[in-house]
């Protein structure tokens, strides 16, 4: 943790309850529900429609395989968090184990990821409004949602956690309800789909791999996007009441979350309705309930997916403000971002991030039909950078432990270091496939531009303030923080 963090002054006299100045206002149940709800968003509810049309029932296998990789990434993050739980976790670990340049790039790239993801989520939310009011321009809904969520993020972190708890509770309850209704249709035969719904839909319409293995592989980048944001629990580390206990519990719920909310839900909806009837850009959950003759159910589902998108965008505004503050505390961003309000929220960072998210309003105005696809591909590549840095930092950490330079974490990643290398190789495969897919290729065109911006700005700052990027001895800084406390 940077020495500037110890010296930071809390604007308005807020109590400095952690080394970073944040209030540890997030309890166990809030962290658990943020972890559960963080991965339930547009990638599942909206993006799955396109993925089903590309891969058919084999999409279930794609979600299961990617889910295993995600669990490995989260366990790597968990081991690092138990070693040193900090709010700017990804950039802090990259800064410590890979060097100042990678910490700088990771911090700004993760900030960009959440800005772009916020645009994605508000785009999805605006499209869901069309279900009830098709005459309302998509950009108008996007503007209203962006402004409203900005004001929501001016509240205290405790209230933010409470709101996210109930947002996530709605999503979790709805998916479980959908699964139970689907099981009822399959076993009891009620509704007009009772005579046609069958688990055999998973292999009767062209087989389990109707588009071949290649078709399944080409959906991996869509599936990876669906899991982006699971790492958000790492950002909450600086504001968790008991991170050493709460965070491992949240991370260990990843397997059953994926099994229930993704694999289980997709099995049910594709058993209710043949996969050939789902269309890109249409939520398969809404379409499934409409097909089985439950229009009210479709409306309820549409409301749930609307809340899911807004919840994810809300989380994006939360994380972007924290990431900008972490960069500023390390001298890698404007100093004004270091200040907190009386309630312990980074007001200026959140304000700037919200202003950038307004770009989503313009995208929805210019290209309302393609907005989601444009931003999904770029969000995927920028979000995966954080995962790459987590895995690479973890490998360096384990090496330092083996050499006796650092203490071992009590929450070790299983199969390390081989599992870290497997996860890195899988991410590399997805990047290659994004280059092949013409719809996702736009992100690879944007990535070099962002890389140039990062490199030029890095060397520009280092030329003016070389001390900012000096290699820090974290152990010495932690001792200094304890003494000052």
- Using the CA coordinates, give the radius of gyration: 22 Å
Number of strands: 0
Percent helix: 55-70%
**Number of structurally distinct domains:** 1
CATH architecture: Up-down Bundle
Q: Helix- and strand-based class? A: mainly alpha
Work out the oligomeric state of the chains in this entry: single chain
- Helical run tally: 23
Secondary structure blueprint with pairings:
Blueprint: H1 3-7, H2 28-38, H3 42-45, H4 47-55, H5 59-83, H6 89-97, H7 100-129, H8 138-152, H9 157-188, H10 201-204, H11 212-217, H12 220-227, H13 232-235, H14 243-252, H15 254-272, H16 284-291, H17 295-329, H18 347-357, H19 359-366, H20 371-402, H21 418-436, H22 441-464, H23 474-484
Tell me what the structure shows.
- This protein is an all-alpha fold and 485 residues long.
- Helices cover 70% and strands 0% of the residues.
- It is built from 23 helices and no strands.
- It has helices at 3-7, 28-38, 42-45, 47-55, 59-83, 89-97, 100-129, 138-152, 157-188, 201-204, 212-217, 220-227, 232-235, 243-252, 254-272, 284-291, 295-329, 347-357, 359-366, 371-402, 418-436, 441-464, 474-484.
- The longest helix has 35 residues, at 295-329.
- The chain is globular, with a radius of gyration of 22 Å.
